[in-house]
Amino acid sequence: MSDFVNETIESVHKALVQKEFSVTELTQRALDFTEKRDQDLNAFITLDKDGAIKQAEEIDNKGIDDDNILAGIPMGMKDNIVTKGLLTTSASKILSNFTPIYDATVVEKLKAQGVVILGKTNLDEFAMGGSTETSYYGVTKNAWDNTKVPGGSSGGSAASVASGEVLYSLGSDTGGSIRQPAAYNGIVGLKPTYGRVSRWGLIAFGSSLDQIGPLTRTVKDNALVLNAIAGVDNKDTTSANLEVPDYTKNIENGVANLRIAVPKEFLAEGIDPEVKNTINLAIEQFKSLGAIVEEVSIPHTKYGIAAYYILGSSEASSNLQRFDGVRYGFSDRTGKTLEEMYQNTRTEGFGEEVKRRIMLGTFALSAGFYDAYFKKAAQVRTILINDFNKIFENFDIIIGPTAPTPAFALGSENADPKTMYMNDVLTIPVNLAGLPGLSINAGFSSEHLPIGLQIIGKAFDEATVYKAAFAFERATQLFKQIPGGQK
Amino acid sequence: MAYANFITTIGLEVHVEMKTNSKLLSPSPVNFGDAANNNTNVIDWGYPGVLPQANKGALEYGMMAALALNMEITRDIRWDRKNYIYPDNPKSYQTTQQATPIGQNGKVEITLEDGTTKTIRIKEIHVEEDAGKNTHGGDGYSYVDLNRQGTPLIEIVSEPDITSPDEAYAYLEKLRQLIQFTGISDVKMQEGSLRADANISIRPAGSDQFGTKVELKNINSFSYLRTALAFEEDRQARELIAGNTIQQETRRYDEATKSTILMRVKEGADDYRYFPEPDLPVVHISEEWINEVKNKLPESVSDRLNRYINDFDLSPTDAGVLTQTLIMSDFYDKTVGFGADPKRSANYLIGDVNAFLNENGLELQDTKITPEHLSTLIKLIDDGTISTKQAKQVFTALTQGQEPKDYVEKNGLVQESRVEILQPIIAEIVDNNEQSVIDFKAGKDRAVGFLIGQIMKQTHGNANPNVVNQILIDELNER
Amino acid sequence: MSEVLSKDEAKHVASLAKLNFTEEQLDKMVSQLSNILDLVDTLNEVDTNGVEATYSVSNNVNVLREDMADNWQQKDQLINNAPESKDGLIKVPAILDGGDINE
Question: By the 8 A CB rule, do B74 and B104 touch?
């Protein structure tokens, strides 16, 4: 085993417990493979060779309990999640020299489980983008086809799992940033309910939309990781004080009589025919497994994008004001005055897409425009939430495609930001409503690119989402298909 | 007001730093005077990835201030971000309560020096966070200390009811007094725990349009603010009379010239891009919570005033003097608590103690006088151990921190109450003043006063007046 | 297509955000933002009369911290991470506008 494409967390855990190999050996192999694979893939910004080996040795010394499922498992951490003592850049020049002095809550939780953080994965700068092309550290390639984007913003997290560099990774999802790259790379990615996972230590983009979640090869692996990172945190007072169930417990119970809604807007104009076909086949699959599937309407779907770009960019414009060259990170001190330092630092430190969103958000909040843009968008958000609430009165989950198309070619959508934004049309409404959403591979395009199925659940009902995804996975066995790698 | 044909309108924005244990949004300690940046953490520095944790105590202090200022408590509160980039503002936004201030529609009654009273309405108070401190190095750099960053503040915004610098002064004094008695702040302008910014405009009498506002900032005493406002009133009137317009600007006070100096001209309105803070949950304040906070509130100024008048039989004037500051009022209550007579305690504090403070330019808390010692002194007078004259000497010892009883014993300062000693002295004085005896028999009480004066003179003021009085009356009646 | 955002507004916004643009960059930004704002303007098709705005989807109310001080002792590490510092203070180019805004 040099990579993890044919493994799961459970299978590697078993091998570790049975001492087929040590954590150190496993970590060394993962590092060796990743170093080689990443020459083309570029999934990682920072590979923490020394740190990973050190963690591995510590775990080897302690030994691994049978029920400590994540212990010793190498993983990738999205580089907008802060790690104490380990460079954390958010893929931006402005943080290119930033070493955090504290751990994100999810990092703390995983460290307590004895995980091995192999390194920090690439993303669109400050998680703003859908292709990982806006990273200061270069583009990441799609694990299935190196001429295609890996999706974004958690492109590095998705590609690292799909290529077998790591068994799982964490990503963050503000408008689809876990689910869309998971779809493009044929793996499982979950954005939990807003408040399910602590945001403490996640470098904020859109604070009312952001959530951290797992990207894995299989549904069960995903549930295992969520088990470890979910829960209330007094450092994030928006985190929910609700009990966290064992998400693997009823995962195999099947979908008989599960009520599934398919919004007609999710399969309307603008959705690639191959995507439509694949999703229609998935719908048939669910029916054959005993689920009750009905068409519904989320009439305000198409307004999601507009509302999202206003709300997300507004929050981002405020969140990113702290990068001013005063207290940490990149600082341009070539000018004499304070104003020059501010302007030079921010102008040089931020990339184009980030500046665009800062400009958009600052404008939407500025005097005279707040009501027309920010407040209007926040009202439309309410209406969209009501759409979802209505459906969930009668249904358990909602399904549809994750993205309108499979992964697109590198560089193909950079000309017009609006085209890029449209890729998020199916994932954004879920963030606006704060609901859990999962993407799982549902099949392949004629170019043999993965096509994601999105499963949306009620708030804090990740368990049902996993149950449905597991049933689908068990029936299709698509996770056994692995990327052919380079073309 | 120099020019009677103009009407002045003054608005005051008062910031009060609250004495909570921890900051508004982080658990860092709130403490004045520590080494730079000692009381800071990643939250205070606005580190990437941090989130705020709102302080319940700061909200309750805000509620206390609102209650003390007769305000309605806003039941549903969300926090807002006020965006501006500045070195002492690490997140580049200040967390405040722009849309839902914790208190609204308050009022206070001010009393002017001529005794007239006026009600000033308070628009709202917000709970918000203080900024850090910038110091200017003179070496081409500025230096930032974030210890103060995040200290909970309340901002108190007045309605435009204040129409003269004297009213502004009285309003500030009143606010300081009311807030001080809640115990939420030291309200000391020289330490920065109370800061007042003013805006002032004038308009011709009869006009219903407010004039252009000029802001006055960074003024560090109430009397400077009063002088600055008076200067502005005059300056603006002269500008208008000369046919000039007032521009929207910020000015500061210059102590040396007793005038205001231009700091910066405002170009257009500020654009702070307020919006609801997504990182903090909303706050709902229930009736029960308000009652809980009411129960935690110390006795208010007016309750103390009434208690002094009704229970201790003090005059409203004396009760007013004793309730001017929390420290004086607490000192008084403790003195009485140690068993001293309330009226005599009041007289002592208002008289000797205040005189001592004024002479030496001290605040009560900076002296060595304690309520226990003062109470002992008053009791020594009341039980006749020492005379009022001797008391003066003991009081001086008290200000040096000496225990009164010890001092009296060590210095043999005991009042003469022995009849066998006083009787012969009194008899001799009566013998020598026959006319007074005649006057006494004729019913002229004056004679008694005269004789007592003579006796006290003879005994160098050490005779116990009660005992003297008794012996003298007996002596006179026997003649 | 009329430009929803004028160049002057874009300049004002850039100055608020402390970003510098060349004239050429600003023209491009104005055109891209206007394009996005055209999309945003579709929101006007939705009747939001009397609709409450949603600013957060968290259901938390009164999640507050008790007022207890806890010094995390991070000063040295914080100062160490600052681009420039002196004697425990953060060093920045001189603030020239005379002061403490302290709103």
Answer: yes
pLDDT for residue C3 is more than 60: no
Q: How confident is the model at residue C97 (pLDDT cuts 50, 70, 90)?
A: low
Helix (H) or strand (E) holding B6: strand B6-17
Cβ contact, residue pair C72, B276, below 8 Å:
no
Domains of chain B: 6-284 (no CATH), 299-410 (no CATH), 419-478 (1.10.10.410)
> Closest partner residue to C57 among A342, A377, A433, by Cβ?
A433
For residue B130, which of B214, B198, B40 has the smallest C-alpha distance?
Answer: B40
Domain of residue A19: give its range: 1-487
Q: Rounded mean pLDDT of A425-450? A: 97
Per-residue tokens: B403: 């225990």
CB atoms within 10 A of CB B215: 18
Q: What is the pLDDT of residue B1?
A: 46
Distance CA A322, CA B51 (A): 13
Whether B137 shows a pLDDT value over 90: the answer reads: no
CATH of the structural domain C7-44, one choice from 1.25.40, 1.10.20, 1.10.10, 1.10.3470: 1.10.20
| A302 within 8 A of A432, measured Cβ to Cβ | no
Contact residues, B window 336-395, toward C, CB-based 8 Å cutoff:
none
Nearest C-alpha in B relative to A325: B87
Lowest mean pLDDT among A148-152, B114-118, B353-357, C96-100: C96-100
pTM: 0.92
Contact (Cβ atoms closer than 8 angstroms) between residue A191 and residue A179? yes
Going by C-alpha positions, the residue among A286, A476, A479 that lies closest to residue A397 is A286
> Could you say which residues from 16 to 35 on chain C have a Cβ atom under 8 Å away from some Cβ of chain A?
16-21, 29, 32-33, 35
ipTM over 0.90: yes
- pLDDT value at residue B218: 87
* Residue B421: per-residue pLDDT: 85
A328 contacts C81? CB cut-off 8 A: yes
Measured CA to CA, the distance from residue B274 to residue A21 in angstroms comes to: 57
- Geometric angle at alpha carbon B25, from B23 and B31, rounded to 5°: 10
Q: Where are the domains of chain C?
A: 7-44
Residue C1 — pLDDT band, cuts 50, 70, 90? very low
CATH of the domain at A315: 3.90.1300.10
Q: What is the pLDDT of residues B193-210, one digit of tens each?
A: 999 999 999 999 888 899
CA distance B232 to chain C (A): 20
- β-pair partners for B17: B153
Show the DSSP H helices in B213-297 as ranges: 222-241, 287-296
Question: How many other C-beta atoms lie within 10 A of the C-beta of residue A21?
Answer: 16
**Count of domains observed in chain A:** 1
**Rounded (5°) CA angle B65-B56-A321:** 95
